Amino acid sequence: MMLDQLLSLSAPSAGATPRHDWLDLASTDFICHPMKFPGVLSAAECAEIVRLGEAGAPVTAGLMRPVEGYRKGGTRLLPLTAESKWLYERVRALLLQVNQWYRFEITAMVDSLLYCEYPVDGQFEWHVDCAESPTSTRKVSLSFQISDPSDYDGGGLEFAHYGELRESRRRGTAIAFPAFVHHRVAPVTRGVRRSLVAWAHGPVFR
Hints:
Layout: H1 3-7, E1 35-37, H2 43-54, E2 58-59, E3 71-72, E4 74-78, H3 85-102, E5 113-118, E6 123-127, E7 138-145, E8 152-154, E9 157-159, E10 163-164, E11 174-178, E12 183-185, E13 188-191, E14 193-201
Antiparallel strand pairs: 1-11, 2-4, 3-6, 4-5, 5-14, 6-12, 7-11, 7-14, 8-13, 9-10, 9-12
């Protein structure tokens, strides 16, 4: 698969529909709901993501207009390479499958995957993932649980209207949500929380 094909989200995805165990898809308001997909990544794959992520280039990630202390943690780019191609393929397939429910107009993965580590006192206060350019075209966000739940305390991925989804800390679980939904990473009180995040882009909402 060529690079432009891999990053494109304009074609339907083959494969099984991802599992969810709490969302009523007959609901009329699920467009704003986060969705949980357990078992998307194996423990061995999570360990490989840690290896790839720790080798990535450190970047400053946070608000478009930085506020001191709003985000505390380390972020590294996990670029598309021969070693990470399998992961990009997995993320692309899940974004396409998730969007069967959100039904947004999505076209591409523009950003590199982002590997995140939150040590003790690490956090990311309430925010949305789409704001000014270049984030204005983000439509669907994905957050993958890379840590084992026993590795840390605190650090929950919380949503303004829904709280922390039950059993969302299982290693290898993916959480999908519209990029405009308010969410945060609560302060970590023990250990290190590791995650991987990705976004689907498309024409601006109108």
